[in-house]
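Sanity check

After download, print the first record. It should look like this:
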Amino acid sequence: MNNILKNKGFTLIELLVVVSIIGLLASVVMTSLNTARAKARDTKRMQDLHQIKVALEMYFDVNGRYPAITGWAYSNATSWDTLQTALAPYIPSLPKDPKNNRSGPWTTGNYSYAYGYNTASFPGKYDLVTQFEDVNNNNRCELKLWRYHTNGNEALWCGSYSKYLYADH
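Expected C-alpha cells:
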C-alpha cells in the first residue's frame, strides 16, 4: 500500500524541469512578440511619413514652397503644432511617432519625426526623417544612403547620425 501512495506525485526535480521548460518557451514567445511589435511600429512610421509627404506636396502645389519653420519641427515638441497648423487643410491631424520619446531621431534610440526645410539652400526640397527600431529594415539609411538638404550640401544622413534613420522626401 505504501508503494501505491509513493507513485501518485511528482518529484521536485520533475516539477523544476517542467517549470524551466515553460519559462524558456515563454521567453522565446515574448522575444518574438517584441520583434513583431517593433516591425509594426516601423511600418506605421513609414506610412505616417508618407501621409505627411502627401500633405507637404499639396501645400507646395498651392503655395509654391514648403512650410517654412525655424530649425527643425519635432513630433514631440511645440514646433510640430506649428507644422500642423500649416498643413491643416491637407491632413486632419499630423501623426506622431509611436514611441515619440525624444526630440530629433538622429541618435540611435531616439524616436520622433523631424521636418526640416531650408529655403536658401534647396527651395524645392525638404527633409522628413524618423528612426527605425528594426535594425534589419531594408529601408534604413545604412542601405538607402539617404541625403539631407537642410545644411546646403546634401550630405549622407547616416554619416555622423544613426544608421537606422529613414527619410521620405
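If your output differs, re-run the checksum step. Summary of this record's structure: The mean pLDDT is 85.
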